[in-house]
Specification:
The protein is an alpha/beta fold and 285 residues long. The protein folds into 2 domains: 18-54, no CATH class; 55-279, 2-enoyl-CoA Hydratase, Chain A, domain 1, CATH 3.90.226. 36% of the residues lie in helices and 17% in strands. It has 10 helices and 9 strands. The strands form 2 sheets. Strands 3-4-5-6-7-8-9 form a 7-stranded mixed beta sheet, with helices on both faces. A two-stranded antiparallel sheet has the order 1-2. Helix 5 runs parallel beside helix 6. The longest helix has 20 residues, at 171-190. It is globular. The termini are far apart.
């Protein structure tokens, strides 16, 4: 029936009852490729037409790495405080409450232990959607505790970085986490327990300056942005024009900062292969 005749016939559907296509059923990649959201999930959140790796969070990485997506979360109720009574455009305590309400997360990292190809594995996965994946006291503490669990139980550790850097609202307390996490990873190295660092899009700032680049093997997903300062800052500081692919995973691998770039479909297999390689080398030594 034509729209202009509907009112005459007494047909008036309320706006809230109209059957529009629900949001989230389709995903459009930056290159313009469109894929059904369900198919995207089945394809490890990688667009099949252009191979674009969509940003995902800790829950998705846990489901990829752990057998049957089964795991035990560690220190799940750890939350940030506000010892500095920080306030910019919003009070820090209010910002934390809003982030938790919007994301359902307690902070920017989750840690868990489970089986991966039948072997115990500890995974710390960062979530960018919680205040830009910024590294504050809770992030540092949970990573340190994950390393402690690995040390106590002789279990390999994987850290999946996705961060905008240190959390400015915690100032020096945030910067202290660089040294804290680095010291814990040094203990893992002394104990010859494998630590694999996975850099995803984006891995920047203090995260890159600490645990993200301290793996026995440093790997990345294709096309990930990885760096310390942004390209504009680097350009202004050096006074030089930067390559078009500057701070991409491919650029870093070419210059020796990464060991390997892995497709997400092969992530679980490759991480376990690297762990076996490190363990075999440790046994021979």
């Amino acid at each position: 029936m034509a729209w202009f005749k509907r009112k005459e016939k007494g047909i008036q559907t309320a706006t809230e009852n109209k059957k529009d296509v629900p949001k989230g059923l389709w995903y459009k990649s930056p290159t313009g490729k469109i894929i059904d959201a369900e198919e995207l999930a089945k394809n490890f959140y990688v667009s099949p037409e252009d191979d674009y790796h969509v940003r995902i969070g800790s829950e998705e990485y846990f489901s990829i790495l752990f057998d049957d997506a089964k795991y035990k979360e560690l220190d799940k109720n750890l939350t940030s405080k506000d010892p500095l009574n920080f306030e910019d455009t919003k009070k820090y305590v209010d910002r934390l409450k809003d982030a938790e309400a919007k994301t359902g997360l307690k902070d920017a990292v989750r840690t868990a232990v489970g089986k991966s190809f039948g072997k115990d594995l500890v995974v710390a996965a960062m979530d960018f959607k919680f205040i830009g994946g910024s590294m504050g006291s809770v992030v540092g503490e949970k990573i340190a505790r994950a390393a402690d669990y690995s040390l106590k139980n002789n279990v390999p550790l994987v850290i999946i970085s996705k961060s905008g850097g240190a959390r400015m609202m915690e100032a020096a307390l945030s910067l202290m986490q660089l040294a804290k996490t680095s010291a814990k990873l040094a203990q893992l190295a002394d104990a010859k327990i494998p630590y694999i660092s996975l850099c995803t899009d984006p891995t920047t700032g203090g995260t890159t300056a600490s645990f993200a680049m301290l793996g026995d093997i440093n790997i990345s997903e294709p096309g990930a942005l990885i760096g310390f300062a942004g390209p504009r800052v680097v350009r202004d500081t050096t006074g030089q024009e930067l390559p078009a692919d500057f701070q991409t995973a491919e650029f870093l691998k070419e210059h020796g900062f990464l060991d390997f770039i892995t497709h997400r479909k092969e992530l679980k297999t490759n991480i376990n292969l690297y762990i076996d390689l490190i363990l075999n080398q440790a046994i021979r030594n």
